Structure to design on (348 residues):
């Protein structure tokens, strides 16, 4: 059986950034079920909007963004509409509009050659007590033993499920793609408290319009379809979907849901619960938690060090939890939207 010092399960944003920055003297293997080299197979459903905090981390790491990773158009405002109070407001936003699958492959391409990158391989079983796992690649089963396991395997984390971790609040994110046709391109954010205590969105990727939303697990599909029909009534061209995708998305309601692991097991990115409960923006947290965990590997007790070094990231999530109370309590949202605070007056 092959042995490595560190095994990382998941090569999304968190896994790639971790693999780029982990100490070089430790042998490292990163495993992902996706094809990391070609645009075929599994794709992560995601809005692909790179928030200013994520841009700042890329700046800090001197990682440039190639044009081919970016989608068109880049949009500077978001239309916000509450379907119940019928208030519309526009707000300035500073996102970079990305193709998420291309961004993931680009980050994976930056992993240094001393790291063993195993793609199109799914981790099927994990034995944290005896520090070994089994993964399947090309219908063949492989065993691997390790000293430290890093769970970078996203919202539905296998690693987290093997730990005594608190239950996370999560939603089902459902998203469909449509032909944009002549519809004016814009970003949209839509609230309807009768269907979800999160939100729905409109996004544009080249000539494709994406409509999606995050819904409580109970009756999620029905809630999505009802939301979509209300959007059709508003004039959105959502009648003929080209593609439909869905996945879990975490949204920590309390700080105790953020779980960093245990001795010799670290959870990073969304697996740990690092995602904003107000906007569901997770890429900056995936990067920042990965960097802190990579730094912690230099310490004699990586788990303790990771806990200590990630305190300010926890504070950031706490502030987002306060923001989500404002955003998702209908009467407070009504007051904020009605006040016109921070709105951009768009010309008709
Ligand atoms: C619909 C939707 C829209 C979103 N929009 C945005 C947005 O616009 N901006 C933003 O910043 N964030 C957004 N997010 C959140 C963001 O996508 C995540 O928080 C972020 O991707 C987390 O990164 P990660 O690396 O922790 O996990 P992931 O990106 O989910 O990566 C996990 C990786 O682990 C692999 N994996 C999982 N299990 C196994 C296994 N058993 N074996 C092998 N490999 C495995 C997966 O293939 C995947 O590559 C959105 C999320 C959703 C669901």
């Amino acid at each position: 059986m092959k042995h490595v010092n560190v095994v990382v399960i998941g090569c999304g944003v968190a896994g790639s950034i971790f693999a780029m920055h982990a100490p070089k003297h430790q042998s490292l293997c990163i495993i992902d079920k996706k094809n990391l080299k070609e645009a075929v197979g599994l794709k992560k459903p995601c809005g692909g909007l790179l928030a200013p905090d994520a841009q700042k981390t890329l700046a800090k790491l001197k990682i440039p963004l190639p044009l081919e990773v970016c989608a068109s158009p880049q949009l500077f405002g978001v239309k916000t509409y509450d379907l119940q109070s019928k208030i519309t407001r526009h707000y300035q936003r500073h996102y970079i509009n990305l193709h998420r699958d291309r961004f993931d492959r680009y980050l994976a391409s930056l992993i240094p050659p001393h790291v063993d990158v195993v793609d199109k391989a799914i981790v099927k079983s994990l034995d944290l007590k005896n520090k070994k796992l089994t993964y399947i690649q090309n219908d063949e089963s492989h065993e691997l033993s390790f000293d430290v396991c890093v769970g970078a395997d996203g919202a539905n984390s296998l690693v987290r499920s093997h730990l005594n971790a608190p239950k996370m609040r999560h939603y089902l994110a459902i998203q469909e793609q449509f032909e944009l046709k002549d519809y004016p391109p814009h970003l949209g954010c839509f609230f309807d408290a009768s269907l979800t205590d999160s939100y729905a969105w409109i996004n544009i990727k080249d000539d494709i319009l994406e409509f999606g939303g995050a819904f409580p697990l109970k009756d999620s599909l029905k809630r999505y379809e009802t939301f979509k029909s209300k959007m059709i009534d508003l004039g959105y061209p959502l009648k003929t979907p080209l593609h439909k995708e869905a996945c879990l998305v975490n949204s920590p309601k309390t700080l105790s849901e953020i779980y960093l692991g245990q001795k010799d097991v670290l959870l990073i990115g969304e697996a740990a619960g690092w995602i904003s409960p107000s906007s569901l923006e997770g890429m900056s947290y995936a990067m920042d938690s990965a960097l802190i965990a990579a730094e912690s590997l230099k310490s004699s007790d990586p788990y303790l060090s990771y806990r200590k070094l990630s305190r300010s990231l926890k504070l950031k999530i706490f502030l987002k939890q306060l923001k989500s109370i404002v955003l998702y309590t209908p009467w407070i949202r009504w007051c904020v939207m009605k006040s016109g605070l921070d709105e951009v007056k768009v010309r008709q």
About this structure: The chain has a mean pLDDT of 97.
